[in-house]
Amino acid sequence: MMFKKTIVTTTLAAALVFTSQQAAATIVLVETNMGDFEINLFDQTTPKTVANFLTYVKAGTFDNSVFHRSLKDFVIQGGGQRYSGNNAAPFTEITPRGPVDNEPKLSNVRGTVAMAKKANNPNSATTHWFVNIKDNSSHLDKDNAGYTVFGVVTGTGMSVVDSINNLYVPGGAGVFREAPLRNYSATDLANNVPVTAANIVTIERITIINDSPTTAANLNPKPNTLAGQDNDSSSGGGSMGSALLLALAGLAFWRRRKV
User: Fold this and answer.
1) Who's near 107: CB < 8 A, 6+ residues apart?
2) How many C-beta atoms surround the C-beta of residue 239 within 10 A?
3) 42 lies in a domain?
4) DSSP letter at 43?
5) What is the pTM of this model?
6) Residue 90, domain CATH
7) How many domains does the chain contain in total?
8) Per-residue model confidence as pLDDT tens digits over 212-232
9) Domain of 111, in residue numbers
């Protein structure tokens, strides 16, 4: 009798573990002042990164944050800063928890969502995340040991992402040089029109809308086959003729020409 009870207990424990592992596919809704989009998270493929992201989601950390960076036909980045209302120092950094281990298992193709991190430090991602506007796999799957893709924008969500990426970005050396700005133009910049909260692209909130274990059943993310081939984040190449490199060096992505 004792032997049978042990078998039943062991089987039940195994079943509970299996259930907890399977019940791990999550969909979140990103609500912005440019429209909403959904991200299906790859909980079972990148569990540490998804758990890290959801910790911030559940705490409301991303609510009223901003998309502070948009690089045309490359990425939009958010998750790490808020608008201060002070045009001299417009963005304030969200206080991060500890960094998360790199999990470069999936490819940085169009529509995927990945973590930004510090240059030359693969295991340094915290709060900053970005959406790939195009297939960036040739650089981002291998630079800095590969950038962790942990979700994908689904449905018609990329139309919202594209609309953000198509906004005016001042460039140059100003404090808003990489920020996508709504209802703002080069003429406004030339006339020293101040940027206001109405011009900033805001992430109003991110919420979990589905935690069913089958939400990713019909998705077929592309594997990352380049991670580990090139750990030099200063490498370049590609058909664009310049290295669009992704690194979170303190606060920012940076762009560097081939030498």
Assistant:
1) 137, 141, 149, 221, 222, 223, 224, 225, 226
2) 5
3) yes
4) T
5) 0.83
6) 2.40.100.10
7) 1
8) 878 888 899 999 999 988 654
9) 26-136+148-210
